[in-house]
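#lab-general

N.A. 3:47 PM
ok so I finally got the sequence cleaned up, no stray characters, all 176 residues accounted for. can someone with queue access submit it? mine expired

B.Y. 3:52 PM
send it over

N.A. 3:53 PM
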Amino acid sequence: MPRLTPLTPDTAVGASRGLLADLVSRHGQIGDMVSTMAHSPAVLGGYLQLSRAMGRAKLDRRISERISIAVQVLQGCGLCLDAHVGAARAMGVDEEEIEQARAGTSADPAIAAIITLALQVYREPTSITDEQVIALREHGYSDRAIADVVGVVALNILTGAFNLLAGLTPESDTGA
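B.Y. 4:20 PM
back already:
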Protein backbone atom coordinates (compact mmCIF):
# COMPACT_ATOMS: atom_id res chain seq x y z
CA MET A 1 0.00 0.00 0.00
CA PRO A 2 1.40 3.41 -0.94
CA ARG A 3 2.75 5.47 1.97
CA LEU A 4 2.74 8.78 0.09
CA THR A 5 -0.11 10.19 -1.97
CA PRO A 6 0.43 10.80 -5.69
CA LEU A 7 -0.09 14.43 -6.67
CA THR A 8 -1.55 16.03 -9.78
CA PRO A 9 -0.80 19.38 -11.37
CA ASP A 10 -3.81 20.68 -9.41
CA THR A 11 -2.69 19.33 -6.01
CA ALA A 12 1.07 19.91 -6.35
CA VAL A 13 2.58 23.17 -5.17
CA GLY A 14 5.54 25.28 -6.18
CA ALA A 15 7.92 24.02 -8.84
CA SER A 16 6.32 20.57 -8.77
CA ARG A 17 3.07 21.98 -10.11
CA GLY A 18 4.77 23.23 -13.27
CA LEU A 19 6.87 20.10 -13.70
CA LEU A 20 3.82 17.83 -13.44
CA ALA A 21 1.73 20.05 -15.73
CA ASP A 22 4.48 19.93 -18.35
CA LEU A 23 4.80 16.14 -18.08
CA VAL A 24 1.04 15.60 -18.33
CA SER A 25 0.79 17.93 -21.34
CA ARG A 26 3.62 16.10 -23.14
CA HIS A 27 2.81 12.50 -22.15
CA GLY A 28 -0.89 12.50 -21.31
CA GLN A 29 -0.44 10.64 -18.06
CA ILE A 30 2.34 9.97 -15.60
CA GLY A 31 3.05 7.07 -13.31
CA ASP A 32 2.66 6.99 -9.56
CA MET A 33 6.41 7.30 -8.97
CA VAL A 34 6.71 10.63 -10.77
CA SER A 35 3.48 12.03 -9.35
CA THR A 36 4.52 10.98 -5.86
CA MET A 37 8.00 12.46 -6.27
CA ALA A 38 6.23 15.80 -6.72
CA HIS A 39 6.06 16.11 -2.91
CA SER A 40 9.69 17.20 -3.26
CA PRO A 41 10.41 19.54 -6.17
CA ALA A 42 14.12 18.86 -5.61
CA VAL A 43 13.70 15.08 -5.93
CA LEU A 44 11.34 15.33 -8.91
CA GLY A 45 13.53 17.87 -10.71
CA GLY A 46 16.68 15.91 -9.98
CA TYR A 47 15.11 12.67 -11.19
CA LEU A 48 13.88 14.27 -14.42
CA GLN A 49 17.26 15.89 -15.13
CA LEU A 50 19.24 12.71 -14.41
CA SER A 51 16.81 10.59 -16.40
CA ARG A 52 17.08 12.91 -19.41
CA ALA A 53 20.85 13.05 -19.11
CA MET A 54 21.14 9.26 -18.96
CA GLY A 55 19.05 9.09 -22.13
CA ARG A 56 22.14 10.52 -23.84
CA ALA A 57 24.51 7.95 -22.32
CA LYS A 58 26.98 6.14 -24.58
CA LEU A 59 26.48 2.85 -22.79
CA ASP A 60 24.28 0.56 -24.90
CA ARG A 61 20.70 0.56 -23.57
CA ARG A 62 20.52 -3.25 -23.59
CA ILE A 63 23.53 -3.26 -21.26
CA SER A 64 22.09 -0.45 -19.11
CA GLU A 65 18.89 -2.45 -18.64
CA ARG A 66 20.88 -5.52 -17.54
CA ILE A 67 22.79 -3.35 -15.07
CA SER A 68 19.47 -1.96 -13.81
CA ILE A 69 18.10 -5.48 -13.35
CA ALA A 70 21.17 -6.53 -11.35
CA VAL A 71 21.01 -3.42 -9.15
CA GLN A 72 17.27 -3.71 -8.53
CA VAL A 73 17.57 -7.36 -7.52
CA LEU A 74 19.92 -6.17 -4.76
CA GLN A 75 17.94 -3.06 -3.89
CA GLY A 76 14.65 -4.92 -3.80
CA CYS A 77 12.40 -2.56 -5.75
CA GLY A 78 9.89 -4.83 -7.48
CA LEU A 79 8.42 -1.92 -9.43
CA CYS A 80 11.79 -0.97 -10.91
CA LEU A 81 12.76 -4.60 -11.50
CA ASP A 82 9.56 -5.26 -13.44
CA ALA A 83 10.07 -2.08 -15.50
CA HIS A 84 13.67 -2.94 -16.38
CA VAL A 85 12.89 -6.58 -17.21
CA GLY A 86 10.10 -5.35 -19.48
CA ALA A 87 12.40 -2.81 -21.13
CA ALA A 88 15.12 -5.44 -21.66
CA ARG A 89 12.61 -7.79 -23.28
CA ALA A 90 11.33 -4.97 -25.50
CA MET A 91 14.93 -4.38 -26.67
CA GLY A 92 15.38 -8.04 -27.57
CA VAL A 93 17.40 -9.22 -24.58
CA ASP A 94 16.63 -12.93 -24.31
CA GLU A 95 15.29 -14.62 -21.18
CA GLU A 96 18.58 -16.38 -20.45
CA GLU A 97 20.42 -13.05 -20.39
CA ILE A 98 17.70 -11.52 -18.22
CA GLU A 99 18.16 -14.37 -15.75
CA GLN A 100 21.93 -13.89 -15.90
CA ALA A 101 21.41 -10.18 -15.15
CA ARG A 102 19.25 -11.11 -12.15
CA ALA A 103 22.24 -13.11 -10.94
CA GLY A 104 24.56 -10.15 -11.53
CA THR A 105 26.36 -11.46 -14.58
CA SER A 106 26.12 -12.26 -18.30
CA ALA A 107 27.19 -15.04 -20.63
CA ASP A 108 29.11 -12.35 -22.54
CA PRO A 109 32.39 -11.66 -20.67
CA ALA A 110 32.38 -7.96 -21.64
CA ILE A 111 28.84 -7.45 -20.33
CA ALA A 112 29.59 -9.52 -17.23
CA ALA A 113 32.57 -7.23 -16.54
CA ILE A 114 30.53 -4.04 -16.77
CA ILE A 115 27.74 -5.50 -14.61
CA THR A 116 30.39 -6.42 -12.04
CA LEU A 117 31.62 -2.83 -12.10
CA ALA A 118 28.07 -1.53 -11.64
CA LEU A 119 27.47 -3.78 -8.66
CA GLN A 120 30.74 -2.58 -7.13
CA VAL A 121 29.65 1.04 -7.67
CA TYR A 122 26.43 0.12 -5.84
CA ARG A 123 27.96 -1.92 -3.01
CA GLU A 124 31.57 -0.89 -2.53
CA PRO A 125 33.10 1.60 -4.96
CA THR A 126 36.39 1.55 -3.02
CA SER A 127 36.95 -2.00 -4.31
CA ILE A 128 37.25 -0.89 -7.96
CA THR A 129 40.78 -1.39 -9.27
CA ASP A 130 42.90 0.18 -12.01
CA GLU A 131 43.24 -3.28 -13.58
CA GLN A 132 39.48 -3.62 -13.71
CA VAL A 133 39.09 -0.33 -15.61
CA ILE A 134 41.90 -1.34 -17.98
CA ALA A 135 40.13 -4.65 -18.61
CA LEU A 136 36.89 -2.80 -19.40
CA ARG A 137 38.75 -0.70 -21.98
CA GLU A 138 40.17 -3.94 -23.43
CA HIS A 139 36.58 -5.18 -23.75
CA GLY A 140 35.94 -2.11 -25.93
CA TYR A 141 34.28 0.23 -23.44
CA SER A 142 35.18 3.90 -23.75
CA ASP A 143 35.88 6.03 -20.71
CA ARG A 144 32.53 7.71 -21.33
CA ALA A 145 30.66 4.37 -21.29
CA ILE A 146 32.51 3.37 -18.12
CA ALA A 147 31.60 6.70 -16.49
CA ASP A 148 27.97 6.24 -17.59
CA VAL A 149 27.78 3.19 -15.30
CA VAL A 150 27.81 5.51 -12.29
CA GLY A 151 24.85 7.43 -13.72
CA VAL A 152 22.89 4.23 -14.39
CA VAL A 153 23.51 3.03 -10.85
CA ALA A 154 22.68 6.43 -9.34
CA LEU A 155 19.39 6.63 -11.25
CA ASN A 156 18.49 3.14 -10.04
CA ILE A 157 19.34 3.99 -6.45
CA LEU A 158 17.16 7.10 -6.65
CA THR A 159 14.13 5.44 -8.23
CA GLY A 160 14.34 2.22 -6.26
CA ALA A 161 14.85 3.90 -2.90
CA PHE A 162 12.06 6.37 -3.62
CA ASN A 163 9.61 3.63 -4.63
CA LEU A 164 10.48 1.60 -1.54
CA LEU A 165 10.03 4.62 0.74
CA ALA A 166 6.77 5.62 -0.95
CA GLY A 167 5.45 2.04 -0.77
CA LEU A 168 5.00 1.80 -4.54
CA THR A 169 4.81 -1.76 -5.78
CA PRO A 170 4.11 -3.40 -9.13
CA GLU A 171 0.45 -3.68 -8.07
CA SER A 172 0.15 0.04 -7.32
CA ASP A 173 1.68 1.37 -10.53
CA THR A 174 1.91 0.40 -14.17
CA GLY A 175 5.49 1.63 -14.64
CA ALA A 176 8.55 3.18 -13.01
